[in-house]
Amino acid sequence: MTDESTSIDNNWTMIIRPKRHWLDLQLGELWRFRDLIALFVWRDFVTYYKQTILGPLWFLIQPVLTTLTFTVIFGKLAGLSTDGLPQFLFYMAGTVGWSYFSACLIKTSDTFKANAGIFGKVYFPRLTVPISILISNLITLAIQFALFLCFMAYFGLRGADIRPNVWIFLTPLLLFLMAGLGLGFGIIVSSLTTRYRDLQFLVNFGVQLWMYATPVIYPLSQVPEKYRWIILANPMTPILETIRYAYLGAGLVSGTHLLYSFFAMIVVLIIGILIFNRVERTFMDTV
Question: Structure pTM?
Fold first, then answer.
């Protein structure tokens, strides 16, 4: 009987054990389930606009319409400064960067609620879902950023004063910071909404307010010195300012500020993963 049990046990390819403490993260499983992550990415990317008339064109229409709205309202009517940059490029750079971060945060904040049916039926590392959201949003960002580069080339050929520089090589780091912040804050909210459901209603509104505390529609240089530290306390501020400076040549860039964003991202991500790991053990009991 013992030999037969041992033989059966040796046939298993995976043993599922309960997580015993907060730090029992089992992050190595994410690599083993990379095919599942790819499947979730395909689901998120392909089915999002599946039953729409314009389909994937919305990936291009959304940033253009948002940029045009900002240009008319804040650039023309309100007369906000754009640090001497073409208004359309200034707002599009901020819009594309902010859209990636906000999409990551909003979509990951709904992880437990939107996937309750799957979580209750089959085992897989729950972090595969928010990570797949980051990747699918990254594909969207690549499309929108390519559009931004096309507009940048157009304005450059028309003689606009834009000066791309070596800071462009920090683009992978900036993407990593935005993804980490979006994931960290998103899974914190997702974990808390399993117990406090009304937080979900505040996410979209809170992200919208957060945008106005970030240099998306105004440059950091226009914030009075005595209040600038408040805006710089926002870890997204150095990231967007660096994006504008790297590709357009205007903005307040500081290695110290970027280092602050990096450490803020690490702290938020660690806290988010720990809370997420804790909540996923008892999530189905609170559904």
Answer: 0.86
